[in-house]
Amino acid sequence: MFSCREMTEADNEAVAALIRDNLEQFGLDIPGTVYFDEGLDHLSDFYGKEKRRYFVMEDESGKVIGGIGFAGFEPMKDTAELQKLYLADSAKGSGLGYRLIEFIEDKMREAGFRQSYLETHDNLQAAIHIYEKSGYEEIARPEEVGHSTMNRFFLKKLVAG
C-alpha cells in the first residue's frame, strides 16, 4: 500500500536525495539539470502554493519512495509543467510512475490547467516510455526551456476527469 501526500519541509532532504540518486544513475548529474538547481535542497519553499504543488509517495513504513509535482508554465496558456517525477529503485517497474502521473494530472485539473507540459532527456528512456503510454505527445523544443540539458519535450491535453 502506498500513499501520496503534499510535500512538507521535513521531506526536503529525502526528495533531494531521491532526485540526485536518479540523475546520477543516468549520467545527468551535470549542469543544466535539476541536479544543480539552487533550490533542490529546499523544494518545499518553492511548492505548496495554488499553482505550484509537489507530492511525495510513501511506502507502508512512511519512507519517501517517489515524488511528482507541477507548476504553471507561463509560456503556454492554461498549461502546467509536470515536474520532478522520480521513484526510488525499489518502486520502479511496479506501475507507480503511471499512478503518480494520473494523480498529478488530477491535481493539475483541480488547479484549472488544461494542458500538461514536460521536459526530459534521451537518457531517461523508461520515463519517456511512461509519458508516451500516458498520452503525452512529443513537441518541438519551446524557447523557454528551464533546464538547458533537457532535449525531449512533451504535451498532453487534460480532458475533464
Q: What's the shape?
A: globular
Helix share bin: 25-40%
Low-confidence stretches: none
- Average pLDDT over all residues: 93
What string gives the helices and strands in order? EHHEEEHEHEE
> For this entry, what is the oligomeric state of its chains?
single chain
Q: So, CATH architecture?
A: 3-Layer(aba) Sandwich
List how many beta strands DSSP finds.
Answer: 7
Number of helices: 4
What is the assigned CATH homologous superfamily? Gcn5-related N-acetyltransferase (GNAT)
- Give the structural class: alpha+beta
Computed over alpha carbons, the radius of gyration is 15 Å
Specify the biggest β-sheet: 7 strands, mixed
Strand order of the largest sheet: 1-2-3-4-5-7-6
Distance between the termini: 24 Å
What's the CATH C level?
Alpha Beta
The CATH topology comes to Aminopeptidase
Strand content: 25-35%
Number of domains: 1
Report on this model:
The protein is built from 4 helices and 7 strands; from the N terminus they run βααβββαβαββ. The chain has 161 residues and is of the alpha+beta class. It has a single domain, classed as Gcn5-related N-acetyltransferase (GNAT) (Aminopeptidase, 3-Layer(aba) Sandwich), CATH 3.40.630. The chain has a 7-stranded mixed sheet, with helices on both faces. The longest helix has 15 residues, at 96-110. The radius of gyration is 15 Å and the shape is globular. The mean pLDDT is 93.
